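Entry:
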Amino acid sequence: MGWRADSSLSQSTVAETETEAPKKKVQMPTRFDKFKKTYKGPRTLHTVEDGALDFSYDEFAQAVAETEYAFERNSVVEGVAVEYSGNGGCLVDIGAKSSAFLPEQEVALVNDGTISLEDMVPLDTTMDFQIISEEDENGQLLVSLKRIQFRQAWESIQKLATEDAIIEAPVIAVNRGGAICLVEGLRAFMPGSHLAGQMADENLIGQSLKVKFLEVAQENNKLVVSNRKAIVEQQMADLSRGDVVAGIVKAIKPYGAFVEVGGMSGLLHISQISYDRIDDLEKVLQPGMPVKCMIIDHDKVNGRIALSTKTLETNPGDMLNDSAKVFENAEEAAERYHKKMEEERLAREEAARGIVMGLSGDTMEALDEIMAGSGSSSDDGDGASVDPLQDVSDSLDSLLS
C-alpha cells in the first residue's frame, strides 16, 4: 500500500509536469534596439548663429577637401607605421578601412643592408607614402617610400644639370663599356672614354669621383655622366698661359705629340718642341714618357691646351741632346723666359715712344688710340697686362679648333 501511494504520487507529479505550459524564450535586445532606446524621442536642436563660429562653412568645406584622401593608385597620402611584419615590411595606417602594407623592397631607393627597417621607418611617425596598387580582396593597399624618393631624385638631378654642377658620385660597378655610379641614389653610366687617368676595372669600385652630366633624360630613364669633363673644368680654372705643367706622352703623330696633363689632352706641336729642326720625332719623345711643358694657349670651354718645350730650352737644341735636363730645370727656365719676354716688351714700348717724340699733337693722339686698341694694356683674364705668349699661340689656333 505504501508502495502504491508513492507510485500514485509519482505518476501525479509527472502528469502535472506534462500538462504545464512551455516557458517562453526570452529574446535579448539587438544593437539597434539599444540605440533606439537611447536615442529615440524628440531631441532639442541647438542653433548657433554664424557669428559665434570661429570659421565659416566655406572654410570648413575647404578643410574637409584638403584632408580627404583619394585612395587611388599613385596617390601620395600621409600615414603612420603601426606594426612591423614578419614577412618583411610593415603595416601603415593611412586612414583607409584596412592598414596598408609597405614591402621591404619599397622602403628605400638605396639600401646597402646596413640600415634596418626600424631605422628607416620608425613607428608612430607621420610620413608620406605613395599608393602603388589597387585594393585586394581584404581591402588592403600596397604603399611605397621608394617611388617618392625616385621622383625627388630626378627633380634634384634636373636642377643640378641646369646649374651645370660638379658632384661626387661613388662607383658601384664596372663593365666593358665603362662604370656605373650612383647620383642622388640613381644609377648613372660613365663611358670608359670619360674616365680621367683611370681604367674601368675592379679597382675603381668604391671610389668617389667628381662628375658632370652628359645626358639627363628622365622620360627614358637615362643618365650619363663624365669624370673627365669635371676634372678638365677644375683643372682649366687654375691654368694660365706660361704655367709649367707635368704630363705623360700618350701618342706620337707626324705633326707632334699628345700629352695628358691632369686628365686633359694637350698638343705639343712639332714646331714647339725645340728651336732646332727635328728630323725624327720618335727619337725625342716616346709614348709613356714623363715630360714638363709650358702652356702657351688654352681653350677652357672645350678643355684643350697647347704646350711648348722649346720655351724651356736654355740653349737651342737642348731637347734633342738632353731632354731630361730640360725637364729638371723647367721652372728656372720658365722664369728666365718670362723675364726675357718682359724685357723685350718694355724695349719695344721705349722704342715706340722715341719714334713718336717728334710727331705732332694730332698724330700723337691718333697713335695713342691705336696703341689702346691694340691691347698693349689689356688683360687676358689671368691678371697679366700683356701676354708674351700670344704671338706663339696664334699659329696653333687652327690645330685646336
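Residues 97 and 139 are 7 Å apart (CA to CA).
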